[in-house]
Structure prediction request, 410 residues.
Amino acid sequence: MTPPPDNPLLDLRDRFPCLDQTVHGKPLTYLDTAATALKPTCVIESLAHHYRLVSANIHRGVHTLSERATADFERARTTVQTHLNAAHSHEIIFTSGTTDSINLVAQSYGQLAIGAGDEILITEMEHHSNIVPWQLLRERSGAVLRVAPMLDNGDLDRDAFRAALNARTRLVAVTAVSNALGTVNPVAELTREAHAAGAVVLVDAAQALPLQAMDVQALDCDFLAFSGHKVFGPTGIGVLYGKNDLLKAMPPVKGGGDMILSVTFDQTTYNELPHIFEAGTAHIAGAIGLGRALEFVNAVGYPAIEAHESALLDHALTALQAIDGVRLVGTPAQRKGIVSFLVDAIHPHDLGTILDGEGVAIRAGHHCAQPVMAHYGVAATARASFSIYNTRDDVDRLVAAIRAAQEIFA
Ligand code: C6P
Prediction:
């Protein structure tokens, strides 16, 4: 595997083959990274390498290829552990993504520790994946789901959050970065406050991890969930980090191969962590590709990623606000490179279609965050999101395409 050069941002776009194409005859301007990131060649090659030369199942075989696959898979787990600064590799559970990780906690920790009258606290800016699993738990357990509201600028209402915490709060589940508004939440502080109230904390890092380091020991969060595909890795693979003591106490929620030590018809003895939560054949190539993606992120480096993305964000905010008829939705004080906006008299879906005609890929819709849309009294927004492969030219193309759409609708 060839490591990226010292200053990888210089030729970074070349590492993303998907960018080397036209859409409707125009060069692709990909501004939909919050939905899924493009994949660098090193990740694509790690998947191809696995399927071409290894391909075997893990934890089961005594033959060479199976041992190789197992070693690669477990090395990927250690890469994730190092990336998150987790204390133990068995605190890293491979799942199919953020959604799966949150559901695992809701089902397993929910069964262990959350009963009738207990409270779960989320925020108004959560993705549906951090709302619906708690509603399902509420239905199963009789727990109460509380919601800390946002301020109108898209920041979390910190006073309301503090006021919602109480002796019945068992779990706080909060996103580190809002996928609809880009809001950055002060996760370490929220965790301190939640712990002081006696609650455990789950951090949804789906949008955060691609853009900023998430050190689980520094944050002191109890659980953290993320998806491989948003951090330049494959789809269908993700991670649940959980603190050793909590995971050890939690019951498995899926039964099958790999999560057992022995099975009779009378009784099953479960495997140890992390395997107890990884029933069935894992997404082996996906985990290996995710490991390679995190190595890529480290080679680029979060300081370079943050500086690049923040410069693009500033340029985008200035450029969008300079267009008559464009309204930003949410102006959070601390934000990452995700911008929701509306253009007067053009439905976001129409805008998305016209922009696509110009080769500009954005997301239009409710972004799986309908409560955020409800807060602003809209059904949908247009959303542009930025990554390391984007340039100022991409922002300028977005602006030009919006102006073209306005002319069509004028
Ligand atoms: N947001 C977006 O366009 P999955 O689907 O499990 O990989 O990720 C779910 C998820 C959870 N939390 C946050 C904050 C997210 O942004 C997402 C995925 C994508 O915004 C697809 S809806």
